[in-house]
Amino acid sequence: MGAQKKGATARVSEDPEELARNPLQAILLADSFATTFRPITLERPKVLLPLVNIPMIDYTLAWLESAGVEEVFVFCCAHSKQVIDYLESSQWSSQPNFSVATIESHNSISAGDALRLIYERNVIHGDFVLISGDTVSNMLLTQALQEHKERKKKDANAIMTMVVKQSKPSPITQQSRLGTDELFMAINPVTKQLLCYEDKAEYSKGFISLDKTLIADNPSIILHNDKQDCYIDICSQEVLSLFTDNFDYQHLRRHFVKGLLVDDIMGYKIFTHEIHSSYAARIDNFRSYDTISKDIIQRWTYPSVPDVLCGSTAIKVERQGTYRASDVTLSRSAHVGSFTFIGQGTKIGNDTKISHSVVGEGCTIGSNVTIEGSYIWNNVTIEDGCQLRHAIVCDGVIMKSGAVLQPGVILSFKVVVGQQFVVPAYSKVSLLQQPTQQDSDEELEYADSTSGTGELQSEKLNGDIAPDLSETASELGTGGVGYIWSVFEGVQDEEWRHSVAPIPTDKLVKLMLDEDEEQLTQDGNVLSASGELKADSDDNGSEDENNEDSRDDYVFFEKEVEATFLRAVHENVKVDHAVLEVNALRLSYNMASVDCAGAIFYSMMKLAVESPHSSASELHKNAAEMITKWQKLLKSFLHDIDEEIEVILKFEEMCLESAKEFAALFPQVLHLLYDKEILQEDAILRWADEKEGADESDKVFLKRSEKFIQWLKEAEEEDDDD
Amino acid sequence: MDFQVVVLAGGNSKNLTPLISKDVPKPLLPVANRPVLYYVLHQLRQSNLKDLIVVVEGEDAALHVGGWISKTFVDGLHVEIAAVPEDIGTAGALRAISHHLTAKDILVVSGDLVSDVPPGAVAATHRRHDAAVTAMLCSVPVSGSLESGSSGGKDKTRKPGRYNIIGLDPCKQFLLHIATGSEIEKDSRLQKHILHAVGQMEIRSDLMDAHMYAFKRSVLQEVLDQKDTFQSLKQDIVPYLVRSQLKSEALLNGISQAEENGNEKLSSPNNQVLVSKILANASTPSFHEPYSMEPDGSAQTRKTHKCCAYIASSSSYCVRLNSIQAFMDINRDVTGEADHLLSDNIIGPSPKLGTKTTVGPHCMLGEGSEMGDKCQVKRSVIGRHCRIGSHVKIVNSVVMNHVTIGDGCIIQGSVVCSNVQLQERVVLKDCLVGAGFVVTMGNEYKGESLARKEK
């Protein structure tokens, strides 16, 4: 008893000592090891990009200081010199109780490399906060830190606490308001242990899989789709050594977190800490840049707001969330709307309207300019009559009069947009040429591991800024300077997801419809899941499910064939190639050539219906053209009569359901197919025979083509007579 | 209440041989001297649910059960007995009697449920949410003897097993996922679109589907008609309804009545507005989407139905009699910790006890039973009209009616069915003795199942 008590008091007295010995440390990664902010990050590191006119890293450092961190190691990789120079000249180098040290590396290509290097330096002596330099927060660390320490004391394997926050992704786009992909986390509601972490990268269709051992070990698990990862981690020292042990860990989440969750040999555990009323978010892409800027202007992040952070230049907050620096020259007729920031020394001309935007320092904005939801950095010149909507305009850009930026445009440093030039939506414009190494999709896939070197290369590029700019001037209109970066194929349709511009309505509509469709097709999958189950008990059942499955497959197959066919039409693919492609599809979906014939014919007719026509005769002409042009493709899948009959049946089905316009033309098209020798008369006659016994309702088309069939029969008889 | 109750009483069960026989079908298997079916019927009567259909497997069994019910529940209950063929499954049984179903909602209860959860509460939950299906969930029962002094091996069985994996919404009102049978041994696959709609789902493995469901009749009949391969309520129909709750139009497009109640429960009104706005703006829908359009061409939102859960409080008692172990447990509990189930207790005129015979707590002796001198009874149930000799020791056992036990017998952890004769100095440990069996003098059995050969 006595000994125990003594032990207890000893521990109590130890604790403050321990705390005193180890000042709270933080590792700040001043490189995102990603390419989302290109082309801007080719010239300036992401952490120095202005967020409501203050470099992002200042928000992070200000938070760390307020949260009681005493020692910060800033890890610089790409553009390390710029970061170091900035930090040296900033207020941070001279704080009394807050030391900022930089660690420079030129060959780290991932967060994993960075942490391995820091481990080698042996500067971290206890628990530390791991954060990247693009995080804005105002949360209190005390409680999370306390929880972490207590857990660690009880269980040495509890090495990390992740901060999460409520944020429900949009039901339509499946992404959060920060533009990050949806995230599924399984958390034990009692212990808050993280059991499963799945971002969209691991996409298994329609289902989330939970390991059975998790369920066995935890009587209750809460699976969250409504949480956002704040990328603020409280780590124990072991985390660094783990990165060193597992030299293949690169990405903090994808490799490290998932690696720990999967690996049950070492038994390391990760816990979560949910914040409710405070703010924490990371700028991951342009959309989060936009969202977080708005949050800052609306003061959700207080005290991380511009008027508090930069006390030196007096910034006044006016009504409706308008921030104005002291010496702004504003024309009397200019209108500055709500939630707008105007930086020092900026001049704004007559009748200019600015709303929901940030305008940096030393900008010159002419008359009759409209700026809406845009981010204009420092020393930008915008001449008269320009229009900007949801764009980011970097330092030193010149927009000549009448230029227009459509939503989602990014203008990198010192770009010049020519007179009256309209920059198309989602364009990224830079003085630097697009790095060619990025052209392959595969490269993009591993962007995380290559970006570091990419950014490094760009530093070299930085030296010799495009000497032959005059050549490309036409890309941005007369007098324009800069390259419009081409978007990689495949990413193009995803561009809107991470853009500063709000998601256009038609995209939402499309997504909704897609989702519906997906759910319908998913139904098959769902049933097949139970089919597996039933296979044990009931064979009939599973057979039935198989049928549903195969019907489902057919739907997919038909879509694929249609897509192939459309591509063949639009890109003038040779018929032989199209045949090959359809054949490949046939093999991969395990379909018969009957199905191919049906699907191709379906696609042809669908296209004929969809191409513009004003009358039935034009439609007939369309169909005739289509059939004439692609008869070879169709014929290569028509080997026997059954397949030809399938075509007729398919056509009948279309006339009834999807392409009713053809109903009137049924006999004509049938005749056409006969004339083109796509259908033999035997096929048509056998179809007629088969239909003879059907219901009245099924015979509509048979009746319509009665004449034609009669004619065929007579012709046949004549043949026989011969 | 416009609630019709279907009691699926069953008839034969392989799990319970040799306890049940032709003469004693499963519904009539005595638990603490009452047929197991009594407990369900009693609870239903308490909840004022009096319009019942009792479904029994097999004609003979139906006659037995019908006879007993008419004897016991003369007052108040309106009971129909329906006999269905054996081995057609729970869904098959419902299909067979579906023409009898007329009420708006149907409560389906398993006849082997021994529980103090009021069925009326389940029905009320169902009505309150206007759900398509409401399932009663209870805590997983702790199996095995509470006082595990007798054998150490039982400690293992006391670890709660897993019967279901259940997904609930944060308010624990809606059933979002359910896995039964062999599925729980696999990795769980949870549907993303349901998760998208609710945001977070709690996954519990410590709850059990107690096989008490309230269905909307129209939905139930639709599913029974359309999915004729479905055999089991628990394994097929309920999981199917849960899976398809956000896209029920695929299933229920034949039903014209208002089913579009569910969408607003899961998506906030804001989204609703957005969604309808978007749909209103939608141009012509594509070919593969006949479902999102009404026949008249007007746009509509997706139809959904609600699947609810009624979670019994952890203090309530709820066990299904579907194994020998459960039978032992229930007998023990009903005389012990859950003795409130026998509210109108029926311990008859005190049985005749010999001198120095002790009957411990948590015991029950049926009327007309006699015991000789120096007997010991602990934690056991003894039925009616048993004749028990002297120096008999009965521990942790169930002895049914009309059993004759000779002098000096020792019975531990065993079940002795009706009309069994145990001659002198028989020792039974962890045995099951089928009805009418005769154990000859001085025999010792351990862990065996003894039954008469069927003639």
UniProtKB/TrEMBL annotation, chain A:
InterPro entries: ARM-type_fold, eIF-2B_epsilon_N, eIF2B_epsilon, LbH_EIF2B3/5, NTP_transferase_dom, Nucleotide-diphossugar_trans, Trimer_LpxA-like_sf, W2_domain. It is found in: Cytoplasm, Cytosol. Pfam families: LbH_EIF2B, NTP_transferase, W2. Residues 538-547 have a biased composition (Acidic residues). SUPFAM superfamilies: ARM repeat, Nucleotide-diphospho-sugar transferases, Trimeric LpxA-like enzymes. Residues 551-722 form the W2 domain. Its main location: cytoplasm. The keyword Cytoplasm applies. SMART domains: eIF5C. Keywords: Cytoplasm, Initiation factor, Protein biosynthesis. Transmembrane segments: none annotated. Residues 434-462, 523-552 are annotated as: Disordered. Belongs to the eIF-2B gamma/epsilon subunits family. Component of the translation initiation factor 2B (eIF2B) complex which is a heterodecamer of two sets of five different subunits: alpha, beta, gamma, delta and epsilon. Subunits alpha, beta and delta comprise a regulatory subcomplex and subunits epsilon and gamma comprise a catalytic subcomplex. Within the complex, the hexameric regulatory complex resides at the center, with the two heterodimeric catalytic subcomplexes bound on opposite sides. This is Translation initiation factor eIF2B subunit epsilon. The lineage of its organism: Eukaryota, Viridiplantae, Streptophyta, Embryophyta, Tracheophyta.
UniProtKB/TrEMBL annotation, chain B:
The keyword Cytoplasm applies. Residues 352-440 form the EIF2B subunit epsilon/gamma LbH domain. Keywords: Cytoplasm, Initiation factor, Protein biosynthesis. The keyword Cytoplasm applies. It is found in: Cytoplasm, Cytosol. InterPro entries: eIF2B_gamma, LbH_EIF2B3/5, NTP_transferase_dom, Nucleotide-diphossugar_trans. Residues 5-143 form the Nucleotidyl transferase domain. SUPFAM superfamilies: Nucleotide-diphospho-sugar transferases. Pfam families: LbH_EIF2B (PF25084), NTP_transferase (PF00483). Coiled coil: none annotated. It comes from the Eukaryota. Acts as a component of the translation initiation factor 2B (eIF2B) complex, which catalyzes the exchange of GDP for GTP on the eukaryotic initiation factor 2 (eIF2) complex gamma subunit. Its guanine nucleotide exchange factor activity is repressed when bound to eIF2 complex phosphorylated on the alpha subunit, thereby limiting the amount of methionyl-initiator methionine tRNA available to the ribosome and consequently global translation is repressed. Component of the translation initiation factor 2B (eIF2B) complex which is a heterodecamer of two sets of five different subunits: alpha, beta, gamma, delta and epsilon. Subunits alpha, beta and delta comprise a regulatory subcomplex and subunits epsilon and gamma comprise a catalytic subcomplex. Within the complex, the hexameric regulatory complex resides at the center, with the two heterodimeric catalytic subcomplexes bound on opposite sides. PANTHER family: TRANSLATION INITIATION FACTOR EIF-2B SUBUNIT GAMMA. Belongs to the eIF-2B gamma/epsilon subunits family. This is Translation initiation factor eIF2B subunit gamma. It comes from Hibiscus sabdariffa. The lineage of its organism: Eukaryota, Viridiplantae, Streptophyta, Embryophyta, Tracheophyta.
